[in-house]
Amino acid sequence: MDEITDAAPSATAGPPTDPRFAALPARPGKIVAVHLSYASRADQRGRRPQHPSYFFKPSSSVAASGDTIERPAGTELLAFEGEIALVIGAAARRVTLADAWSHVAAVTAADDFGLYDLRANDKGSNVRSKGGDGYTPIGPALIDARLVHPDALRVRTWLNGDLVQDDTSAGMIFPLAQLVADLSQHFTLEPGDVILTGTPAGSSVAQPGDVVEVEVDVPGGPSSGRLVTTVVQGAADFDGDLGSLPQADDLQRTDAWGSREAAGLPAEGSPATGDPASAAASAAESPASAGAPLLSDELRAKLAAVPVAGLSAQLRKRGLDNVHIDGVRPLHPESKLVGTARTLRFVPNREDLFVSHGAGYNAQKRVFDAVGDGEVVVIEARGEAGSGTLGDILAIRAHAQGAAGIVTDGGVRDAAAVAAVGIPVYSSGAHPAVLGRKHVPWDADLTIACGGTTVQPGDVIVGDADGVVVIPPALVEEVVDAALAQEDEDAWIAERVAEGHPVDGLFPMNAAWRAQFEASREPGAAVDGERPATRAQWPQHTAAPEDGQAGR
């Protein structure tokens, strides 16, 4: 079946009179689009969202199958995105997940075109980059939602006859019914509204003369037919006196084409990139720890169990004294910070450079959008505390991305709101001024200086109430195991001191005390009570030993 029957949930009354809406029951009141929803697309971009996020498209952007779309003069990055479109048939407000699909009247094909040259200027809203006339082709026919299972739908896209996208709704991070139920929590989905449910991997750039076709179907079952759009070159220029002009950088080229290779760009880190801003933009799109060993759950647990002071002592034994991020204090002293570094560099504010690098989708925003699960955003702010280097919105974004924490040797703006987010944050203090008072966000995922020490992408960052230490990835297992062994030894010493023994000969241990300690660790040795495992479990009336022992 290729269209809604009379018995299907009603979308709205009356056929549309505008040919752009020929495939729909009527002109939609709302078009809601999902930013990222397919696992294949998320894996391509190196980040997987925890929850769906959305943007609106105007109904004036709808086009019919067979229509053309203009690539505006002076632009290069008009990208296609084949998608499954849902047409709401019955009003949905705070519907349950189980009931959500019954509010969908039909599904069909859509192409969520976007002009990436304008994406940075839109700052995430996509108003201009995806709201242009003809940027939402839909159709050509509707599939009755009652006849299909929401996980059984397939979406395919062809560019000039070549299949470039092929995925199913079963490969979505967020099931179709979840999108309906989630959106209905926030506003009423009305009959005729359209939800664009995101695109799988394979989206790329279309050139003037290219023909893009999208089809949604159930293999062997009903189909939307092929939605056909032809790209043509526009002649009209944008007027810079009225608003910002299109601009493309290597980040936008990478996103639009799907990869640096497809965009014809040098590999990340290649000296051929030349432009540091472009290099930083491309680097910010990939996990900072690419190529570096990831922290296993077991290793994270070990790092969380040992104090930073113990790690610092072990690093010093190995000749590493300059591994402390000095001058930063935690907003949550009770929380432990463990993760791998994702670096961001600010340079001193210079007004002309802030215009070119501080506005739009700058390096700071790119890093907070791209930070991955278990990573720590480490910011070089030169110890300049005379402005904020982040605020609550960016802290929320990092928290939503699963980041382990944030470390900056600059200030924090809206400090109380940042603390309320709950993510571990270390900074030089609070300051009410915005970033641009002192800093220009310049580049990312490169070697930086933070709090007087060097931090590289992928370095292991550990923090507690004492401060933050940087551990080279190659040493982390050796260092943490040695630190845990030392903690075990120090806990035993603390018990003996608590029993009334003097520290002389015990801290550090002489041969006699060492023999007792080793004997207590042999299998079957009698132990009075549970052995304290960390300093936090030492007898409360006993102060921690002073730095007299080697490495302490």
TrEMBL record:
Name the Gene Ontology molecular function terms of this record: hydrolase activity
Spans of biased composition, class Low complexity? Answer: 269-285
Region (Disordered) residue spans: 261-285, 519-552
Boundaries of each Fumarylacetoacetase-like C-terminal domain copy? 30-231
Keyword Zinc assigned: no
Q: Which residues form a coiled coil?
A: none
| Tagged with keyword Hydrolase | yes
Q: Keyword annotations for this protein?
A: Hydrolase, Metal-binding
Query: Cross-referenced InterPro entries, in alphabetical order?
Result: Fumarylacetoacetase-like_C (IPR011234), Fumarylacetoacetase_C_sf (IPR036663), RraA/RraA-like (IPR005493), RraA/RraA-like_sf (IPR036704)
Protein name per Swiss-Prot or TrEMBL? Fumarylacetoacetate hydrolase family protein
Which taxonomic lineage does the organism of this UniProt entry have?
A: Bacteria, Bacillati, Actinomycetota, Actinomycetes, Micrococcales
